[in-house]
Amino acid sequence: MNILKQSLVILAGIVLAACKPEIVSPMDEGVHADTSFDVAIEFTGTAFVTSDLGPEDLLIELNSVDVTSSFVVNKEGATASAYELADYIFPGKNILKVTGYRDTDQIEFYYDTEGPEIHILDTDHLSHTVTGYVFDRGGVESLMLDGVSVDLDENNAFTASFYDEAFHTFEAEDSFGHTSSSQYARRDQEFAGISARLNQGGFDFLVNVLETELNGSDLSPIVAGMDPVRLLNTLGLFDMSIKFNSVSFSNVDVDLNVLDNERIDTDIQVANTVLGFTLSGRIGFFIPYNSSGTIRFSQLASGTDLLMDIRDSDLDLSLSNTTINHSFPVIDFANTSGLLNILDALTSAIVGALAPMFERLFIDVLEEIIVPVMSDFIKDIPITLDVTAPQSGETVSVRALPTFLDSADRGVSVDLSTHIWAPVPSEDVPGAIGSLFEAGETPSLGAQTPAGEDFHFGASVSANVVNQALLAAFEAGMNSVEMTRELNRNATPAGIAVYRAPEDEIDELDEIRVRLEPASAPFVKFMPATGVAGKLGWYDVYLAFDLYKPEWDEFRTVFGVTFNLAVPFDINSTEDGFLSIGVEQAPEIYVSEVDESGIIRLMPGFINSTIDYFMPWIMPEVAKSLKVVPLPRIYNHTLYMRDFWVAGTNSLSLAGDLIPVSVTASASVPATTVQEVSKRSVDVAISTYDDTGEMVDGVVSVANGEVTIDVDGLNPNSELGNLEYRYRVDGGSWSIWKQRDTIRIRRLLAGDHEVEICSRTPLLKREVSCPVVNFTTTVN
Fold it and tell me: 117 has which bridge partners?
């Protein structure tokens, strides 16, 4: 009996081992224009299976979502209509995976809902020719450039002529009838690409600035250069002039209110205003007269409208409708000469009658103080600067000048015309026809965010500005990256042992180098998705793996691969006033061409693994070069970004608080605390050759191949918001500042590693001594 049971168990095991799921529809790499197809899975080897319910461990996943319940399952297989699964089918690549009978099958299929992609490989602006190709998985039917049909070869490549115009438009159609239109702006184009807004809360910051400036100002130089004013010339008896030589006041209170007519209602309350004067002249024909004194106002109220306008691409400010209310002046004389004291009383009466003249003088003084301070407050909005890479020296020039001003809803908006370009283009990068352009105005911000939150300062930035900046960085040569052990100490034969088979002809004494040489500039598309600002796209990026052997005495290319990538990005602002783009997620990569005609034998998986393990290191280097998009700044204040959202059709808006630089300098320093470091081993697929020369798939275990760091910190300004953190691995480029409690690091090369983690407060005070986490990744 026991023998019979054992035999049945063995038989059942043999039957189950023969069973496996197989996806028969859709086909692997298949392309579909709609959801009218069926999804069908067949269970093979089930002739002796008695259950009609399918495998007990059945799991069907579509794009990592469990959709098993949507299928009709029986002994032979499982079926569902794509229409019923439409909520889980995305435009582009989709992954269908099925697990059953302890076996797995997986395919990729494509849902084609868009027109073809245009890839520009080179442009000759002297001969006015552009070369490239059109890509669409469903096939390409036609291409037009600026309304003229373009011939395509069998690979959908083209060389086309164009006229020198401000914008160029490619229009393409695929075999499903989907069309696409890609427009490019010539590199010299200026965009109305940035709109900055200063809300009432931002102007409240100016109150302290004005009060401090007025209370502490030495106004004597302003009045010292004024000509004397003739006061009296009466029948030859009195001939006197007054000259002001000092002005001072204390206890200044300022109130600013934004009006809807490009003006700011400015009210100033001043106590103890003192005007110092000198009277000089003669009485009769011979008697000289000299006296000095002060005119004192115990209270003085000034009301004026600060009129704002744009003049010659700069902000222009002036005062209008100024009024002065004051208490009765008290005049004190310090000395007299040439007359009896009774004449001093007469002079006092004369001076008191001329108080309106003193008011006019005081208005002049206010104009000398208020207007310059207000001008300084917004002087940083116009931007003209050069951004130079500190190590390589490439330069990008930036210009953003005001063109229009509007005041509404207790705030002021200023539109800026922008132009970003490479003054010295690199000779090593291909030519570009222009930067990716999308029509649409850059919207002005309102008084609140879409979530109803107030903010001090904000800006809308058009994708056209970002893409022009990315083109400038590309043309300057900033996007080309070379990865060696000087840049990453683990970029060595020992470091790549995490995915390199021992049989590969790479020795420990060899040197490796990974080069990234793009054929075109990256570009962004803003997306109204939760948690990300948009996607960074990059076409026709060439990655080369070079090897140096002592016997060669030179680097030689072992393989090269061309790919396209798309990766979500986060955004923030830097302390020095630039838009910061963070690329931390793994990019989606499509390999379009592989050149493996190298001089040594490599395993097939080596190429994909090189991309997987080096891109997490390369992308922060690329993101660092994207720091060329300026944000307007306000009078020694820095923007602390609290929110962002996609505005209009092609713009990203950022909003937050204005933090005075002086406040940041004097603020308390935060401290990062590493709560926990979790290290785990990961299995990495690796291809090897067996003794017969056949290629076999293997797995190596990599200790500390994935590390999770839980962080917290001491926040001295917790009432203002949470800490933000950034980190870098092995001395590489810093990540973006963002609120986070966990840092996950994957795809680590073998060797010793260090992760430096820093925090900053809502007052933008950065940590001084940042903690470092050390660990070692080893191959077992």
Answer: 135
Do 37 and 14 sit in the same domain of this protein? yes
Q: Which residues pair with 589 in a beta bridge?
A: 565
Report the candidate in 151, 166, 158 with the shortest Cα–Cα distance to residue 129.
Answer: 158
- Whether 164 and 85 map to the same domain: the answer is no
Look at residues 136, 65, 59 and name the one whose alpha carbon lies nearest to residue 95.
65
Q: Is residue 138 part of a domain?
A: yes
Instruction: Note down the domain range covering 134.
Output: 117-186
Could you report the per-residue pLDDT of 552-562, keeping only the tens digit for each?
A: 999 999 999 99
Cα–Cα dist 776/728, whole Å = 16
Q: What percent of the chain has pLDDT over 90?
A: 46
CB 512 within 8 A of CB 491: yes
Q: What is the pLDDT of residues 735-761, one digit of tens each?
A: 999 999 999 999 999 999 999 999 999
Considering the domain architecture, whether residues 99 and 162 belong to the same structural domain is answered as no
Q: How many domains does the chain have?
A: 4
pLDDT at 478 exceeding the cut of 50: yes
To 5 degrees, how large is the angle CA 447–CA 190–CA 312? Answer: 75
DSSP state of 356: H
Mean predicted lDDT score pLDDT of the chain? 85
Report the predicted TM-score, pTM, of the whole model to 2 decimal places.
0.81
Rounded to whole angstroms, the Cα distance separating 85 from 64 reads: 13
Alpha carbons within 13 angstroms on the beta-carbon side of residue 670 total 26
The CA distance from 301 to 321, in Å, is 14
CA dist 328 and 352 (Å) reads 9
HEC sequence for 565-628 = EEEEEEEEECCCCEEEEECCCCCEEEEEEEECCCCCCCCHHHHHHHHHHHHHHHHHHHHHHCCC
Strand 148-149 to strand 157-161: parallel, antiparallel, or no bridges (unpaired)?
A: unpaired
